[in-house]
Specification:
Blueprint: H1 2-6, H2 13-22, E1 39-45, H3 51-64, E2 69-75, H4 80-88, E3 97-101, H5 105-109, H6 121-124, H7 131-136, E4 138-139, E5 142-143, E6 146-151, E7 153-158, H8 159-165, H9 173-186, H10 204-213, E8 219-222, E9 225-228, H11 233-248, H12 257-261, H13 264-269, E10 274-278, H14 287-291, E11 295-299, E12 314-320, H15 327-337, H16 340-348, E13 352-353, H17 367-375, H18 392-403, H19 408-423
Parallel strand pairs: 1-2, 1-3
Antiparallel strand pairs: 3-12, 4-5, 6-12, 6-13, 7-10, 7-11, 8-9
Helix pairs in contact: 3-15, 10-11
Length: 425
């Protein structure tokens, strides 16, 4: 029944049975299979790869596999789960390689949509592959996808504003909360509606990273059952800190989704002094601010001085579809993707590459801490229901209630009940 529910829209039980039959590995080709010339179709998501990186990848693959082509097809995030449900269940329509958001990975790895590629681990990076992403792609000891890239979340702050306000760089998460509230109150340049930090309820991954660093947990597994943890003592304390920061450390708590999509402009305009953002956000901060040494970068702190806090690592995995038409050639494409040349390009565009051995190539000062941040990162509950029946909409609603000042305990309890119902279907 769960197969049918998750792949609802893949049209029928026959589609599920086709996936399950192929998931033994017969449709994926063995590691030693000869790759015949052909075309590999690769789906990537909008905003993941620049046009230059797409061209580089296609050119490198063609060079390494004469007579073959890597065809990259860009997909929209909106509606992608439904589109994948249909495409991956079809032997005729399925792409060969698929970028899948890390919070949606388990939805597909648990129903046979991706081939077992455990045998490729050492060739693609071994223990240097982002651990939390590999874990999210592992089912019963077998790996069904590998880390494509991660958006490590750290802190960008205006060094000049901190100095003018007499605020030291925070070393613990408690000091971080105090610093953003103090900066907002100080407003050293007298800017209208100045905000100590940009933090909006609709930025669910930014808020999630803030909460993780405070010890928050969404849910834990108890046997075969997920149990919500938002109302646990540690999570309640984290939510209390969040509500206080929404009230005293940011003026953007109820910013719109449209406003959040380009939130770095507030930093560039001088209306906020702190951002929680991924490495590629650094490439969007005005170069003049960098040149004038007005931008500092640190990991979101933990409660232990000098130790990075746990944050949410957004990003994607990449899987080999069970219904791939060219599985052996698709494995060659994976080798190209995880080779130094392309991994370094990902880093230069601000992403933490799937192989953290190349993380020090991440553009700018963020690269110096990106590896540490990713190593300490966490993901949302590794449940096939997360991203299908539960995800961004529910999180945004939850955080918005906290931002509006609703009772934290009651809101957390209701959220746990909602989460329990969704994850234990």
């Amino acid at each position: 029944m769960k197969f049918r529910r998750i792949l609802a829209g893949a049209t029928a039980a026959s589609a599920v049975l086709a996936l399950a039959a192929c998931s033994t590995g017969t449709g994926a080709g063995g590691a030693g299979d000869e790759a015949e010339a052909g075309t590999v179709r690769m789906w990537v998501m909008e905003g993941s790869l620049s046009e230059e990186s797409q061209q580089y990848l296609a050119d490198e693959f063609a060079k390494e596999n004469p007579g073959s082509e890597l065809k990259i097809e860009v997909q929209q995030w909106d509606g992608i789960v439904s589109k994948l449900q249909t495409a991956l269940a079809s032997k005729n329509e399925s792409p060969d390689l698929v970028e899948i958001g890390n919070t949606q990975t388990t939805t597909f790895t648990t129903v046979g949509a991706f081939a077992d590629v455990t045998d490729l681990k050492d060739a693609l990076g071994g223990d240097d592959l982002i651990p939390s992403f590999v874990d999210a792609s592992t089912v019963d000891g077998k790996i069904y996808a590998y880390p494509f890239y991660a958006g490590a979340r750290g802190v960008y702050y205006r060094t000049d504003l901190f100095e003018q306000a007499g605020i030291a760089v925070p070393q613990t998460i408690g000091e971080f909360d105090e610093a953003v509230a103090a900066l907002q109150q100080a407003n050293p340049e007298g800017v209208a509606d100045f905000s100590g930090m940009y933090l909006a309820a609709v930025d669910v991954h930014g808020v999630g990273s803030y909460l993780f660093s405070h010890g928050f947990e969404y849910a834990e597994k108890d046997g075969d059952k997920w149990v919500g943890q938002a109302s646990s003592p540690a999570s309640l304390a984290a939510l209390e800190s969040l509500q206080s920061t929404f009230e005293n450390g940011t003026t953007y708590a109820l910013d719109s989704q449209a406003g959040q999509k380009s939130f770095e402009r507030y930093f560039n305009e001088g209306t906020t002094g702190v951002l929680i953002g991924t490495g590629n956000i650094g490439t969007k901060i005005d170069q003049a601010l960098w040149d004038d040494k007005k931008v500092g970068v640190i990991a979101i702190p933990s409660d232990e001085p000098g130790v990075a806090g746990a944050t949410f690592a957004g990003g994607s995995n990449i899987g080999l579809a069970t219904n791939s038409q060219n599985p052996a050639l698709a494995k060659k494409a994976l080798e190209t993707i995880f080779a130094e040349g392309f991994q370094t390009r990902l880093a230069e565009e601000g992403w933490v590459p799937g192989n953290t051995g190349y993380a020090d190539s991440v553009a700018g000062p963020f690269g110096e801490i990106a590896g540490e941040i990713i190593t300490n990162s966490k993901l949302t509950p590794n449940s096939p229901e997360w991203g299908v029946t539960f995800g961004g909409a529910q999180l945004s609603e939850f955080f918005t209630r906290i931002a509006k000042g609703e009772d934290v305990k009651a809101t957390a309890k209701a959220f746990d009940e909602q989460l329990d119902a969704a994850l234990n279907k």
